[in-house]
């Protein structure tokens, strides 16, 4: 089946790794909405161990955490939850989550089908001029009729006011600063390899470890460097963009 995008990116610290737990059959379960495959992404797939590690690292960055929850829900086929989680992440300037919301509105998966709102979300997702999001936004625009375009522009302003970078980046920075204040660390400099032990697949007899240095890396606490890293990913990452699939219009 056609997809807008299947994204596999290699920077796990931003929560955008492509991993594998759920099979393609799980993503296309018999009770899934007919258009579910069109809004699924390979980056939703992860092992339980990788999900646990990513969630620990993402605890300090709400965009990553809610995006991760959204991906997990999508992999389970729980599209209502996926929509809610991606929307939370979208409020913290997460362009990928805004993109996923646009697809869900376009295909009516996890939300009522609404092509005008789909375009409005695609527009805010493309705010930073990431090429793949710009392409998808323009494909949607070409499919809209005049009434849908008018409503998309009208309703899009409110979405921009709340979810655009001017409002969402400061919200992210405030949340991140609060997270940093809650971390107990050393004031003496480098503490070396900081690890947390967690039960493995068979319990504490097979413990796993999570290296929290990734979470505490200074660049992740510098919003300018953090957003610059995201820009590199979305401008140069491995992204496959499929053709637009025309969603049936509501009667």
From TrEMBL:
This protein's record includes keyword Transmembrane: no
SUPFAM superfamilies to which the protein is assigned, alphabetical: HCP-like
Organism: Lysobacter capsici AZ78
Signal sequence interval, chain numbering: 1-28
UniProt-recorded name of the protein: Sel1 repeat family protein
Top-level taxon: Bacteria
Keyword tags: Signal
């Amino acid at each position: 089946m056609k997809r807008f995008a299947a994204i596999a990116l290699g920077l796990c610290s931003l929560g955008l790794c492509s991993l594998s737990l759920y099979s393609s059959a799980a993503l296309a379960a018999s009770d899934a909405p007919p258009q579910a495959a069109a809004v699924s992404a390979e980056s939703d797939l992860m092992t339980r161990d990788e999900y646990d590690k990513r969630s620990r690292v993402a605890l300090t960055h709400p965009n990553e955490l809610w995006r991760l929850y959204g991906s997990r829900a999508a992999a389970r086929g729980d599209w209502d939850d996926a929509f809610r989680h991606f929307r939370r992440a979208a409020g913290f300037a997460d362009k990928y989550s805004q993109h996923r919301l646009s697809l869900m509105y376009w295909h009516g998966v996890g939300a009522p089908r609404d092509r005008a709102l789909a375009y409005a979300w695609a527009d805010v997702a493309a705010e930073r001029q990431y090429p793949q999001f710009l392409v998808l936004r323009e494909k949607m625009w070409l499919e809209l009729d005049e009434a849908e375009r008018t409503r998309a522009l009208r309703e899009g302003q409110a979405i921009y006011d709340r979810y655009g970078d001017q409002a969402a980046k400061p919200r992210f920075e405030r949340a991140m600063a609060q997270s940093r204040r809650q971390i107990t660390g050393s004031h003496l400099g480098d503490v070396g390899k900081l690890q947390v032990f967690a039960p493995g697949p068979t319990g504490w007899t097979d413990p796993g470890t999570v290296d929290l240095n990734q979470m505490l890396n200074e660049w992740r606490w510098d919003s300018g460097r953090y957003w610059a890293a995201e820009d590199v990913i979305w401008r140069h990452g491995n992204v496959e963009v499929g053709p637009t699939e025309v969603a049936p219009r509501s009667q």
